[in-house]
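Data card: per-record layout.
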Amino acid sequence: MIDKAFVTECQGFLEANRFRLDEPMKLHTTFKIGGPADCLIFPASLEETEKVLALVKKYQLPLTILGNGSNVLVRDKGIRGVVVKFARPMAYIRCEDTKIIAGAGALLKDVSEVAARNGLTGLEFACGIPGSIGGAIFMNAGAYDGEMKNVAYAVRTVDRAGKLHTYSREKLELGYRHSAFQDNGEAICEVELLLQPGDKNAIDAKIADFTQRRESKQPLEMPSAGSTFKRPKGYFAGTLIDQTGLKGLSVGGAEVSTKHAGFVVNVDNATAADVLGVIHEVQKRVFAAHGVELHPEVRIIGEE
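The structure for this 304-residue chain is written out next.
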């Protein structure tokens, strides 16, 4: 349960539509799956984030931080405590010479489009990744031989005590699907990218090529969390799953995509338990066939 005093204090500075109790998380994830969050908050600024996280600490509530909800599976019983989600209220994007400054809630594809419009190269790879810029830093998102590590310049965060910090690129610890923020638990609030001047026609052509490739190969029309498994060393997860004959494997309303075996998709009101059932079956069968362990790339959160 959420302390009534916490609710009262938050309602003192948050607009009503940015503070919700018992909110179904299936409405806030790209998987369209997930039980209720005790409390869901959408901050609109760094200052609001500082206030919210200070209050979460004051009342000793569990805290979960989300971006666009595109790389997560929320379990069916939902999330206890407070979920802070960076979304439209913190989706600002501005260009300053060869730098782009974006609020954590800005969608990666929108940031990529702003870069292209301003003739800046380096972010073309991100044009179709369905996440926020904050989530992209958190996971060091990447595609088509590009990754956030190559363009991240600085990150502003708020820690669990409500204090503001700025990290230079050297302190981000960006590796394969990893960042320092997975370890320190701080909320990514604002990201600064450093790009390079480029030829606008060449940038547009590269984005068009990546978009065509993505749309032709990936099940973008189905709810999912993107690539389900991390790439095992020396292999591609989707290829291993395909070679094991698992396209179309289903549990309840979840199945391995028939279009791209690296994706588990929600085909018919799937539950988190359905998705986990598919994941576990895929792991078991791929290991039996190839001796390779697959590990989820998607973050699995919430109460079992």
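Known properties of this structure: The chain has three domains: 4-88, 91-217, 237-301. The mean pLDDT is 94.

See the next section for split statistics.
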